[in-house]
Amino acid sequence: MVDINKFLVVSMILFSIPVASSSLLIYFFKPKSKLILGFGSGVIISYVITRILPEVYENSGSISSILVFGGLVISLIFDKMKFFKGEHFTAGELSCWQCEDPFRLDFSIALAFHYFLDGFFLGGFLLTSEKFLFALVPIIAHKFIDGFILFVSFSSQEKLRSVVRIVIVSLSNVFGTLISFLGISLFSISEIFSPVAAGILIYVAIHDFIPALNSGKDFVSFVLGSIFVIALSFLIH
Fold first, then answer.
1. CA 41 → CA 7, 112, 153, distances in Å?
2. What is the pLDDT at residue 91?
């Protein structure tokens, strides 16, 4: 049984980080740098390889391999659906493929469903993690990058309207986390979250973020993200 307070904390984290980061970028910054993509990719991949996967295989047995692969497949399926095409942006120009009108309904629904899945799988991972604070590291990196992508998508639009739409679609994080909380509490499905989350995070880093590393600075930021996680793991071990 997961404590209700932990559910509230996880929901607030998944909701607030993309909202806060994208809103700050919309109001105070311009899309001149994408170094956060490299740093976030290094954080996510290093954490998955050094922490999540070893714990998954130790605690879940052979079924964990299937669940990790399932996370990869889930990410691949939804990424290749035309329904989600407008959510991504070109790495070279930092311009959204179909974001001339990011307020249109299909784009908002795609974002909302993306965050619902994040809330369910990544929120469930946080709810069931024994080392909660350390497990936050890749999730915070992932959601901060989500905020950066929201910033790229909405930065050319009216600011207040953009922030309101971002807040609305980000509430889907909370709904997804609520479903995972109920599943853990009522049906004891806690074993699925760590391996599936590992698969999702691996796909996100390799497919979405690493291809955006086009310069020496991007590569350095990736290495720094990896070193950050390794150093943190020694400190918290």
1. 26, 23, 20
2. 46
